[in-house]
Amino acid sequence: SYFKVLYGRGPSVTGVIETITDGLGATTAIQHGLANDTNFYKGHTPHVETSQSPAFPYAHLGAPLPIVTKFNADNGRSGGVFTSYEFYGLKVHKQGRGLLGFSEIRSWNDNSDIQTSNQYFQTWPYTGVIAVAQQKLPDTWADLSDLWSDLRLNYAAICDTAPVNCAPITP
To answer: What pLDDT score does 40 carry?
Structure first.
């Protein structure tokens, strides 16, 4: 077996995975909360696509669904890498498409203070597709929506300035 999974009960969430231990003994600890807890769910938002509040058949949803609020991935030396989460804009489609997910999920790497914000489409046929991806270092925002171009530019800059042979990359 590659993973050892323990099922546990959080203070308000039952039947969720709390820890995962791989075959090398590295452990990931997972904390859960509920999507109607204002410590983690930061409120309703307009549709990313239209910037308007949802109209029938779309609606905001404030339900006690289990969500991951924090996890600690073992890094083998300093207690792990901690990531915390906040959620925005949970919506539902009332005529059969069901739960549409969150309009935005923000995460913080507590070790490096890097914040990531992903905004998602919530209308069919693009439900769940990332609309905007941003990453924030202390005091800056970087738009990651065109990540591939940035990757190519950074790779080319490193190859132009570093004393190494870099193979060309193609999309």
So the answer is: 92
